[in-house]
Amino acid sequence: MAVRSRLVESLRAALARREALAETVDAYRAVNGAGDGLPGWTLDRYNAHWQLQVFDPALWERRSELVGPVLDLVEPRALVVKDRTSPSGASLEHARGEWILGGDSPRTVVREGAARFAVDLSDGVNPGLFLDMREHRTAFGKLMGGRRLLNLFCYTGSFGVHAFLGGAAALTQVDISAKILHRARLNLRLNGRRAERREFSRWDSLEYLAWAAKKGLRFDAVVVDPPTFSKNKGKTFRVERDLPELAAGAAALLAPDGLLLFGTNCSAISVDRLGRTVRDVLSSRGRASRVLFSGGQGSDFPEAPGARESHLAVVALEAR
Questions:
Q1: Is residue 72 located within the same domain as residue 215?
Q2: Per-residue pLDDT in tens (0 to 9) along the chain, 320 residues
């Protein structure tokens, strides 16, 4: 009984810390494991849909002890519990899920300031919106007035939505997945913009950079938010190894006084290292740069010493 009482109080405190955030968004991390004094699990809100992820095998066997307080305190319309206990990371793409409520309605729409996004909690670990990137995409979107944006590894197009709402003159969004690009088009439509076919390219982002350079294309802003690791056509991409090449390709397409944002979840790349690498590449091309903003995960992702459920490094620069 004492254990449940402590869990309930810690959960209540975590929810209270997000009250101000909940006034402008309804998609955020409500529990970030040890950072909220609740090690081994996380809880994410997507409107009235909630996702509970369990990272500790012993805790997975006792997951009902977590579910009860969550149901009592947040009163979700839908709740899914996902198994993230695989030490190999195999559960990252195909996490075992258990619907507690609302299994017949996994889809919903969330708000992020003025933006709207479609999410699907039955779709792997991430239902379509990376919550930890929220503050950076919002800040970058506000700088997009009149700019032509290239959004590489665009996923479901959240940077594109914020760019459109920020007054971007044109969008080009690139991803290798047809399914993901369909979701990106849907998100634009949710925000009142007709999604033109020419604005989306199903392409490997590195290959697109090479093609666009040959065509002499230029953009006023470029977003590069690649996966840590991927494979395509027998080639392996590793952001820790390939970051300089990626930065050089993006810099080649960037117009004078253009804006460049890089983000990565690779835990081996700190914010300082990311900023240094991108600035060095720009400098090698004779372009001075200044950092507009940089940082890690959002305010709803507190960390505990020695425990990190996830990682993010972001830097946004202006290149002259």
A1: no
A2: 567 889 999 999 999 999 999 999 999 999 999 999 999 999 999 999 999 999 999 999 999 999 999 999 999 999 999 999 987 655 556 678 899 998 888 999 999 999 999 999 998 788 999 999 999 999 999 999 999 999 999 999 999 999 999 999 999 999 999 999 999 999 999 999 988 888 999 999 999 999 999 999 999 999 999 999 888 777 888 999 999 999 999 999 999 999 999 999 999 999 999 999 999 999 999 999 999 999 999 999 998 876 666 899 999 999 99
Strand partners, 237: 230
Question: Is 87 a domain residue?
Answer: yes
CATH number of residue 306's parent domain: 3.40.50.150
Q: What is the DSSP string of 169-183?
A: SEEEEEES-HHHHHH
Contact (CB, 8 A) for 14 and 30: yes
Decide if 86 is inside a domain: yes
User: How many angstroms separate the CA atoms of 42 and 33, rounded?
Assistant: 5
Find the domain containing 47 and state its range: 2-111
Based on the fold, state whether residues 86 and 137 are members of the same structural domain.
no
Token pair listed for 138: 């919002």
Q: Hey, what amino acid is at 129?
A: L
Q: How far is CA 19 from CA 23, 24, 74, 299, in A?
A: 7, 10, 12, 12
Total structural domains within the chain: 2
What pTM value is reported for the model?
0.94
- Indicate if 141 and 242 belong to the same structural domain: yes
